[in-house]
Write a structure and sequence with these properties.
four-stranded antiparallel β-sheet, 2 helices, 16 strands, globular, disordered N terminus
């Protein structure tokens, strides 16, 4: 059984993609009182509860008004009955399982949203290849083999599409893609670093 919590609070909101420096300063009356306005609620959604013993949800990404999450399985599917799936919600309370059941076992390499849509990369061990899944709305998903790079350890939203973390011997090699279909190595990145996670801020990879 999966137990999920939703946190709600009174906060000032920005449109998706708004620049950080444009964040308005909330008035004193708009600052949430953590005792009064911050609440936790159990989500007793049948689709979430039915994901199977040992399932957990990670991560959750917001894009264009929709929440997309992945249900994961411990030890890459070692728990009997555990289902790895894509979940979608518009309010964080009611969730739907969308798309086909994801391949098991196999590590998951990240999910991101840009104006081109949601995208994530994972290993399909049955087919012995990494695959990319993409959706413009979080409902209908297309999946294809990862091309132009052997595999990606992580994928995040970039300034002009997606940024994937690949490898060149012992060092991280970033790859860029506008649509998730075609990837090109970022030859301007020459640092000898081994990154396990990443984020972007404007044109900066962190």
């Amino acid at each position: 059984m999966v137990v999920a919590l939703m946190i709600t609070a009174l906060v000032a909101s920005l449109p998706v993609g708004a620049a950080a420096q444009s964040t308005p300063t909330p008035s004193a009356s708009a600052v949430p009182d953590t005792d009064a306005d911050l609440t936790f609620r159990y989500i007793d959604d049948p689709d979430v509860v039915g994901l199977g013993h040992g399932s957990y949800i990670y991560p959750i990404v917001e894009g264009d008004g929709a929440l997309v999450a992945l249900s994961q399985c411990p030890e890459m599917g070692g728990e009997a009955g555990c289902r790895r799936s894509i979940l979608r919600s518009l309010d964080a309370l009611e969730w739907d399982i969308v798309g086909e059941r994801l391949p098991l076992p196999g590590p998951f390499y990240g999910i991101a949203w840009t104006e081109a849509g949601f995208l994530f990369v994972l290993d399909d061990w049955k087919e012995k290849r990494p695959v990319v899944s993409h959706s413009t709305d979080g409902l209908a998903w297309d999946t294809w083999p990862l091309q132009d790079v052997d595999y990606l350890d992580q994928v995040v939203a970039g300034p002009d599409g997606y940024v994937g973390l690949g490898w060149d011997r012992d060092w991280t090699a970033p790859y860029l893609s506008v649509d998730g279909l075609r990837w090109e190595r970022d030859t301007g990145f020459t640092e000898k670093l081994s990154l396990t996670d990443a984020a972007t801020s404007g044109d900066t990879l962190i």
